[in-house]
Amino acid sequence: MTNVKSAEVLVVGAGPVDETGWRIDGVSSWLWSFSNETISVYVIDPSRGQGVVEEVLGEVFSGVLCSDFYGAYHKIESLKQKCWAHILRDLHNLREKYPKNLEILYFASRMKDFFDRGNSFKRNEVIEPLLSFYGLPDLVYFF
User: Fold this and answer.
1) More confident residue, 123 or 64
2) What is the pLDDT confidence band of residue 37, given thresholds at 50, 70 and 90?
3) Helix (H, G, I), strand (E, B) or coil at 126
4) Average pLDDT, the chain
5) Following DSSP, what letter does each residue of 19-74 receive, concatenated?
6) Where are the domains of the chain?
7) pTM (2 d.p.)
8) 7-82, what's its fold?
């Protein structure tokens, strides 16, 4: 793989990462995506292994690595966040597979409530009134 110096800008902020199958002239490869709020870096590599992630982000990533549950991201030293789309999809699949399991139904409803609360923070519906109420200065945060 070519050394990706432009990916050095990814060392701060949130870092959503993902990979998907990619074919070049009939040969299977992987398209990797590494992003933050200002840039996306794409790498095509024949490997789906952790080495690709390490080459782009390094063994230590100072941002928040947001990924699915694929193992190539596990050993990178960083704060981690799992992709909500994957979590919600997995919960939906569990609810469909076990529609009468009360534990799954309860857990799924609690996770949805948690997700909705997080979205309200993101939309400043909760945090701005709290900051004003307590007379606190604006805080830097991201979701």
Assistant:
1) 64
2) confident
3) coil
4) 81
5) EEEEEETTEEEEEEEEE-SS-EEEEEES--SHHHHHHHH-SEEEEEEEE-S-GGGT
6) 7-82, 85-134
7) 0.69
8) Nucleotidyltransferase; domain 5 (3.30.420)
